Amino acid sequence: MSQSLDITDDAMRELSAQSVALVSDYFERIARLPVFPATSAAEIAEHLRAEIPTEGEPLEKLIGDCRAVMNASRQNGHPRMFGYIASPATPIGAFADLIASALNPNLTSWRSSPAPTQVERIVVGWLGSLIGYGEDARGLLMSGGSLANLNALFIAQRVKSEADVSHKGLWNAGAPMTIYVSDQVHLSIPKAADILGIGREQVRLVKTDERYKLDVKDLRARLLSDIQSGLRPFCIVANAGTTNTGAVDPLDETASVAEEFDLWLHVDGAYGAVAALDETKRALFRGIERADSVSLDPHKWLYAPVDAGCLLFRDESRVRSVFSLSEADYIKVNEQAEEETFAFWDYGIELSRRFRALKIWLMLRYYGARRVAGAISRDNALAQLMAERVEAAEDFELLAPVELSICCFRYLPPGFREKLITESKAERERSNAELDSLNARIMHRVQRGGRAYLSNATLKNGRYALRACITNFRTTDADINETLEIVREAAREEQG
Predict the structure, then answer these.
(1) Closest Cα to residue 247, out of 400, 389, 454?
(2) DSSP conformational letter for 175
(3) What separation in angstroms does the CA of 59 have from each of 13, 18, 97?
(4) pTM beyond cutoff 0.85
């Protein structure tokens, strides 16, 4: 028996034909599948449980099992999938991942992957240009916003530290270093502070206004107070689209404060930065070009398959200095041409890296930037349409302004709107608690019903919101209207 894992030409053609047919069939029927499968963890485990096979299994069985996995998954590409921030993959993006996996390069440096490295560097420049950060942006692709934010804070910490923390450790670095974020910060920022040894207590929360935007006046006051108390501010993290409501902080004003206090400015645009492609939203992102670093996730709203995050930065030399430690012999670069000495490990945490750029490169070339921008603009318009429908209805209440493609609202039973106006403060709190509980049950019923999928958000006033995040090129006006009707049906079922 041959020990080679190569297969015959006929077997390769059959594998290719059946795999492509499976994917094509999936894209064709995705809107007809339940958004969430009618199954349980026990049922899935029972179906998939198996011993490691000693001998190979028939291709037909494997394809059938893959189809079963697809059917028992939450369908991110469904036009009424509004939970979390999960855009669908474009067909070209899906096949790009197949091509990248077939090549299977390891993008550590130009030497290890010449053409894929160049593709990634082109894509990074394109992303910087698309969001208004500039064509001269540098950076690298990462698994997602969490790793990009961690990488950015690591760079900021080292650049702004007066001590040699890379060798002596933070405990010898003098006064505690502090980071400034809005009270709408993504959990990845305090988590990164923990990982870096800064500590969550040194992540200073700044107030936000009624539109959930960072209050620059409070930011300046916190900085002055902390400096007077002997702390060492080193970084401000501004939001370009918060996870809960989609708010964009006043980036230009925040950049001015960062310059005034000589702080690193990082913009967390993992969800929202690509909304700068929408001409009606472009003004919200004024000042993003002044940031020292920006994170964004093409897999969140540029319709790329997971994983595809990105960290952009302006000053390549400062970033490189952070990572320029002694190199092991096996990664030393001995090339002569400057471009051929390029190595991604000089700019990020990862060494082994997959070919993430191909799906973005092919997608932007296949559709063109104008068509992709149109899809993003349409998502924003649909969120505004949902807000208008909510505000026009007696049984819904809009709970936060709609800035990008997120709409937060709640269901109101008959008579509750008037109750909330006329009740005393204590009575109103009890009514709001009752509404929070009801809407939580409605959300769960909607999710498990399989016809639409909403997530939830707890807003800073403590209110529980049904949260629709629209990052889907398949969604239509009809899907918005149907989703609101599905919520109404779930409410009626919950109330008997």
Answers:
(1) 400
(2) S
(3) 12, 9, 21
(4) yes
Name residue, tokens 């069985």.
61
| Residues 184 and 212 sit within 8 Å (Cβ to Cβ) | yes
- Tens of pLDDT along the chain (496 residues)? 567 899 999 999 999 999 999 999 999 999 999 999 888 888 888 777 778 888 899 999 999 999 999 988 889 999 999 998 989 999 999 999 999 999 999 999 999 999 999 999 999 999 999 999 988 899 999 999 999 999 999 999 999 985 444 444 444 456 899 999 999 999 999 999 999 999 999 999 999 999 999 999 999 999 999 999 999 999 999 999 999 999 999 999 999 999 999 999 999 999 999 999 999 999 999 999 999 999 999 999 999 999 999 999 999 989 998 987 645 554 555 555 677 889 999 999 999 999 999 999 999 999 999 999 999 999 999 999 999 999 999 999 999 999 999 999 999 998 888 888 888 888 888 989 999 999 999 999 999 999 999 999 999 888 999 999 999 999 999 999 999 999 999 999 998 7
Q: Which two tokens stand for residue 76?
A: 């991110």
Q: Which of 448, 361, 459 is nearest to 83 (CA)?
A: 448
Helix (H, G, I), strand (E, B) or coil at 236: strand
Q: Which residues, at least 6 apart from 285, have a Cβ–Cβ distance to it below 8 Å?
A: 131, 132, 240, 248, 251, 273, 275, 276
Give 464's strand partners. Answer: 458
Q: What angle do CA 396, 402, 404 make, to 5 degrees?
A: 140
Q: How far apart are CA 82 and CA 198, in angstroms?
A: 35
> Amino acid identity of 407?
C
Could you count the other beta carbons within 10 Å of the beta carbon of residue 376? 23
Alpha-carbon span 225 to 219, nearest angstrom: 10
C-alpha to C-alpha distances, 301 to 204, 297, 321, 398, 469, nearest whole angstrom: 29, 7, 32, 23, 10
Question: Angle 107-111-117 (CA atoms, 0-180°, nearest 5)?
Answer: 40
CATH of domain 376-494: 3.90.1150.170
∠ CA(295), CA(296), CA(297), 5° rounding? 135
Q: Which CATH number fits domain 99-369: 2.40.50.1070, 3.30.430.20, 1.20.210.10, 3.40.640.10?
A: 3.40.640.10
How crowded is residue 408: how many other Cβ atoms within 10 Å of its Cβ? 26
d(CA 233, CA 144): 26
**Beta-strand pair 264-268/232-239:** parallel
Token pair of 334, please? 């001995």
What tokens appear for 100 in the block?
Answer: 């990248």
CA distance 260 to 384: 36
**Distances in whole angstroms, Cα of residue 451 to Cα of each of 36, 115, 468:** 8, 44, 14
Cα separation, 296 vs 186, whole angstroms: 13
